[in-house]
Amino acid sequence: MLGVVQGLTEFLPISSSAHLRIVSEVFFGRDAGAAFTAVTQLGTEAAVLVYFARDIGHLFLTWVRGFRFPAVRATPDYRIAWLVIIGTIPIGVLGFLFEDQIQTAARNLWLIATTLVVFGLLLGLAERVGKQRIELHEMKPADGILLGFAQAMALIPGVSRSGGTITAGLFLGFTRPAAVRYSFLLAIPAVVASGIFQLPDVFAGDGPTGAQMLVATVIAFAIGFASIAWLLRYVERHSVYLFVWYRVALGGLLFVALGAGWIAAT
């Protein structure tokens, strides 16, 4: 079940970590944990690597060639490759500094309900006021840094890694497809590093077995691959208001459930 949830929600701007936290509490009466989330994200990031294999390979080779050939350094692809690297630094530093808080206090369901609603409304505002004229190859260094910090906000469950990046991208004037594609590329280094780093933690105590983690990760990969294809087609033709209303509705329902005592916040 959690593998399905991870695959369905990782790439949509609705926060996979929030959904895993909520589903774990509702159906199993306890939190699956931040480590479980990080490891199952390896499955969905593997889907990104497969889906964008040609683009990623081209960016990597361009980046490597740029060290030898000055002309290559003037290309947009070389700049994008560096911006992905630079944009990964904020989430790496903040994740390391606030690891304990991320795994404990940040997983409180009252906080998650708040971030679902607040950042959902910010996504809607970005959709409304964003110029949506800038394409990915026009990205500047300042844009990459700002989007990196936007991704770092997703360390708090409920913000959404893709949601934070897409919201910032729309505010900066990027088109929806450009913001979505960059959110995929930007997530790869951070998610892979986080998943590998927290792999030992997920089996600690009464956590899942190796077989359970393998099944969850494979399921997340398969469903995540389909989710990527669907989202890219969707944002080319539609606004992101569907996700805005979903986030607000889910956050509101979570507030009700917590206030009525149907589920525990921690």
Automatic annotation (TrEMBL):
Reaction equations catalysed: di-trans,octa-cis-undecaprenyl diphosphate + H2O = di-trans,octa-cis-undecaprenyl phosphate + phosphate + H(+)
Chief localization: membrane
Bilayer-crossing regions: 80-97, 109-126, 146-172, 179-199, 211-232, 244-265
Keywords: Antibiotic resistance, Cell membrane, Cell shape, Cell wall biogenesis/degradation, Hydrolase, Membrane, Peptidoglycan synthesis, Transmembrane, Transmembrane helix
InterPro entries, per the entry: UppP
Enzyme class: hydrolase
HAMAP family given in the database record: Undec_diphosphatase
Family: Belongs to the UppP family.
Anything else known: Bacitracin is thought to be involved in the inhibition of peptidoglycan synthesis by sequestering undecaprenyl diphosphate, thereby reducing the pool of lipid carrier available.
Function: Catalyzes the dephosphorylation of undecaprenyl diphosphate (UPP). Confers resistance to bacitracin.
Protein name: Undecaprenyl-diphosphatase
Upper classification of the organism: Bacteria, Bacillati, Actinomycetota, Actinomycetes, Pseudonocardiales
